[in-house]
Automatic annotation (TrEMBL):
It comes from Trema orientale. This is GRF-type domain-containing protein. GO terms for molecular function: zinc ion binding. InterPro entries: Znf_GRF. It comes from the Eukaryota. Residues 1-24 are annotated as: Disordered.
Length: 99
């Protein structure tokens, strides 16, 4: 398995360039990495070619990022709820303009 700290795109064992993915694990939230194009298809890791695109995330960011993402998702959901209420109050057919 080819693992490195921070690197460039590698060539997979199948001869194709590795693809960029984003980790959403607790230890590496939103940290990008290169891996086999078959990574995580059918629950496997592809040919196991792997390298990080981004440097390690500091411990504080590991705590903050998941909370911020959760807060963002909740706010986006609330916005969609309010848009639906607004649509219904205007007859349901009007598109809502965003500023």
């Amino acid at each position: 398995m080819g693992i490195s700290n921070v690197g460039e795109r590698q060539i997979c064992h199948n001869g194709r360039p590795s693809q960029r993915f984003t980790s959403w694990t607790k230890n590496n939230p939103e940290r990008r990495f290169y891996g086999c194009e078959n990574y995580n298809r059918n629950g496997n890791g592809g040919c196991r070619v792997f390298s990080w695109c981004d440097p390690p995330i500091c411990d504080r960011a590991k705590v903050l990022i998941p909370g911020l993402l959760n807060k963002t998702r909740k706010l986006e959901s609330k916005i969609e709820e309010l848009k639906e209420i607004l649509r219904e109050s205007h007859g349901g057919g009007d598109e809502i303009k965003e500023s």
